[in-house]
Amino acid sequence: MNEQPQIAVSELDRYRLVRQQIEHEDNLISQRLSWLLGSQSFLFTAYAISLNGPTQIRLKPYENTVSLLIVLLPLVAILSSLLIWLAVLAGMWTMHKLRHGFRAENLTGIPNVQSTGGALLIGQFAPMFLPALFIVIWFLLMVRS
Fold this sequence. Notes:
The relative contact order is 0.15. The chain is elongated and about 75 Å long. The protein has one domain (19-104, 111-144). The protein has helices spanning 11-52, 63-101, 117-123, 125-144. The chain starts with 10 loop residues before the first helix and ends with a helix. The protein is mostly helical.
């Protein structure tokens, strides 16, 4: 009925397409980590100012607002870390599927579509664990205050 026409793609062209998709996902992960670091530095600064601000902000009518900020800033930081972490994990999962969906064993003279083994594992430490680190730190700050 509505069959899609098959496009003949050479193995080398397929390699290039998969490689481009992996590079795109890798760039997205880098952008997401930049969002994480930017948002966390902003929230840490706001939190420190809320705790160490002038004594006038601890008086009425600002007292309740400052108390609320001290509670809300860690919550916002944890939620933003969690959301960015999920987006990073989605990108890593997509790259995993692309890597394993394309096998270049038959092709000689071309590199893997992405690093493998220890280099891949070590390269994934920061995107994998940095959001979790921020979540733990914010949770500890929230519990302490």
